Amino acid sequence: MKKSTTRIIMFTIFAILLITTQVFAAPVDIENLEKYDFDIPDNITNERVSAPLSVMTFIVYFIFFILIVALAYFTTRWIGKHQRAIRVKSKYMEIVDSLQLGGDNALYIVKSPEGLLLLGAGKEGVNLLKTLGAEEAELIMQAEENLLEDSFSIHLGNYLSKIKGITKHNKFGGSK
After folding, report:
1. pLDDT tens column, 135-146
2. If you placed Cys at 172, which of 58, 143, 144, 146 could pair as Cys (CB 3.0 to 4.6 Å)?
3. How far apart are the first and last CA of the chain?
4. Residues 6+ apart with CB under 8 A from 117
5. Alpha carbon distance 109, 97 (integer Å)
6. Do residues 19 and 62 both lie within one domain?
7. Which domain holds residue 121?
8. In the chain, what percentage of residues exceed pLDDT 90?
């Protein structure tokens, strides 16, 4: 959302709160203020509540509920949209794999023209941890290809074999 839209929404919510507090406030009886005993609870306010006032209170609460739900919905969509922007594929680079380590820390394997790079991301920024060698890069790429080529039947067979206690296949679908 733009700042102007956010300000308009916040002003509207503040105005509604201010108006509702003025509408639902009990009138002050200045003439009898000296006679009023502040130590005894006042039961008169409960007797003054009428049906239209109760309906109006319900409507105001319902409107606030709808506003909160809408704000939660749009905030969730905004967060989701910005998280998807992280996964955008570049013309020359792509994220092969990532591992969230908690908080703001993560490891990324990035395929670039220089080869596969192991990057560490944290509060301090992004650091190059290691340029992966040819053997490591080949193993990672083979694992990625095998994961893409595996069919559902192989995964189902592996899962059922684990349940039965039979281990005929490894996790890539090949025989052991």
Report:
1. 887 777 777 776
2. 146
3. 55
4. 109, 110, 128, 130, 131, 132
5. 5
6. yes
7. 91-132
8. 8
